[in-house]
Amino acid sequence: MGDLSASEAHLLGMIKEYLIFGEFEETARQLEKECENKGKAIPKVPDSILQDPKTSNLQKDLMTSFEDGDHKVFFELWAQHIPADMRESDPVVQKLEFYLHIHFTIYPLKFSANRAEFDERIMLFKNYLETKGAALSQSAEFLPFYALPFVPNPTIHPSFKMLFQDSWMPDLKEKLEKCLSTTLEASNAPRLFTLYVSLQMQVQLAEMEMKASSYMRKFSKTQADYHNLIGVTAELVDSLEATISGKMISPEYLQGVCVRLFGNQSVAQSIDFIRPGTASSMLRASIPTLAKDVPLLPSLDYEKLKTDLINGSDRRKVALLQALRWRLTRSIRGEQRDSVLQAFISYDLLEFSSSRQKTVLQLMEYKDDVVRQYMARMINAFASLPDGRSYLSQSPLLLRNLLYYLKKEGKDSVTRENALVALQKLSLRRAQQSAMIRDGVIGWLVDELQDSDCLSDITLNYAVALLMNLCLRTQGKRKCAENPKHVLKVLTDLLGHENHEIRPFVNGALYSILCVPTVRDEAREMSMEEILHCYSKEENPELNRQIEFIIKQLNSEDERESDDEDDDDEEDAMEADLDKEEVFQPQLNELSGEALLTTEYLGIMTNMGRGKRKSGLPSRHSVDEPLQRPATPSSHRNTG
Fold this sequence. Notes:
With 640 residues, this protein is mainly alpha-helical. Helix content is 62%, strand content 0%. It is built from 31 helices and no strands. The longest helix has 54 residues. It is extended.
C-alpha cells in the first residue's frame, strides 16, 4: 500500500508540474484543492518549472559574456547548462559552438586590438580544433577556418573577410538567443512531457525494428541466392575445365544445376537436355531484353517547318521548337539519334546559310520570352552532341546572342541557364574558347561565382566548368593574371562549397592558372598552401591527390604556359533533364511533340543515315591529376 501511495504522489506531482508549465493555473489550483480534501500529498514542483527560461538570469549571463567577449565565463555556463548529448550530437548546436569559438578568438582583434590577447586565444582555438572541433573537419563549411591559426593577420585575409563585417556578430547573437531559448526550455520540460516523448519514441523504435527485421529477411534471401549463384558458377567452371580433359557432363548433373538455378524441381524436369540450348533459352527468357532493331523516325518536310517557325503564331513557334527538340533528346542514342541530327544539319534547320531576310536563327532575338527560351533550349540540345557543336560553330552571330542572354536575362531565367549550358558545351571547341575569352566571359564568370549561393546547382556546375575550360588556354590564363587576387579568392571560396560536383573543375582551374608566375606569387601572398592543406583532410583520395598536384604547381618555378593545340570534340553531353520544367503545355485536342511533326510536317526521304561515331578519345590525364582537358559536368559525372 505504501508503494502505491508513493507512486500516486509521484504521478500527481507530474500532473501538477505539467499544468503549471502549460500555464493551466486554475486547473492546477483545483487539483491541489481536491488532493487536500482527499488527504493526498503532492510533491513540490521544481523551481526550474516555475521559472520562465526566457527571462532567466542564466540566459542573461550567457548573452552578457558573449557581448563582452568573456570566453571563460561563457563556456563555463555553456558546459554546465547545455546538455552534453546536445553538444556532442546535435548538428545545430555543434555548428553554433564552432562559430562561438571563432567569435571569442577574434574578439580582441575587433574590439581591443590586443595582439597578446589574440595570440593567447588563437592557441585555445587551435586546441579546440584538434580536440572537440576535429569532428567538423570533414564539413566543407568549416574547413577554411582550420587555416585560421596559421594566418598572421586574419583581418585582411580574403577567406576571413566576412568575420569582420558589421553584420557577422549580430547574426551570430541572434542564432545564440534562439538556441538558448529552445535548449533551456527543453531542459526544463516537465517530466510528464518527457515521459510521453519517451513512450512515443519507444513505439517508433518498435515499428522501425519490425521494418528492419523484414529488410533483414529480404537481405538474407538475396544473400543466399547470391551465394548459391556463386556456387553454381564455380561448379560450372570446374565442369568446363573437366571437358578439356575429355570428361563428359551427364544430363543428371545439368538437371541438378537447373534445380538450383530455378529453385523449382518441376521446371528443371521439363527441360529437354537432349536438345542443346533449351536450359539457357529458359534462363535468358526470364530476363527482359531490349529490341535490337531500332527504327528510324519518319522523315519531315523541313522547308515547311522553317517557314512556320518564321511566320507562324507565337504558340506554333514554341510548339515546333519543343517538338523538334524532343525528337533529338528523346530519340534512342545511336543510329536513330544520329539520323535526326544529320537531317537537322543537312537541311540547315537554324538557317545559318540562308539568304532570306528573316531566318530561324533570328528567333533568338524574338520579342516573346517563351519563344526565346525555347530557342535557347533547342540550341542547348544541339550543343549536347559533337556534330551539333560543329554545326553551331558555323555562326558567329549565335555565340554573340548566347553571350547577350548571359548578361541581360535574369539570374533565375531558364533562357539564361540554357544559354550558359550551351556555351559550356561549345567551350569544348578551341575556336569558341578563343571567342569567349575575347568577349570577356572569364571576367563575367568570376563576378557571377563570387556570389555562388545565389546560383542554382546547374548554373553553378556549368559556370565553374566553363571557367575551367577557358583557363586551360594561354589567353585565358593571361586574362586571369590581370586580376589574380580576385580570381584566386573566388576559386578558393568555391573549394568549400557544399556542391562537391564542382570540385574537379575548381581544381583544374587552379592548377591551370598557377602556371603563371604572377598568379603563383599572389597565391603565396594569400597563404594558399595552408588553405589547400585544410581541404586535403577530406576522405576523398582522388581529390586529395589533385590538391597535392596543385600545391606542387604552386611551389614550382616553371614559367612555361602550355596550351592545348588539339580539338578532340567527341563528347556526348546529352543530359536527362534537358526537357525539364516545360512552360508550353498543349491545349485540349492540340497536337504536340512527335504527333504534331508526323501529322502536319511529314516529308519524303529526309532522314540521313550515317556510320557509327567513335565513342570518344581516351582521357589524356590521370584521375589523380586535376583536369587538363576541356570537359563538361555531365561527362565528368559519367566517368568519375
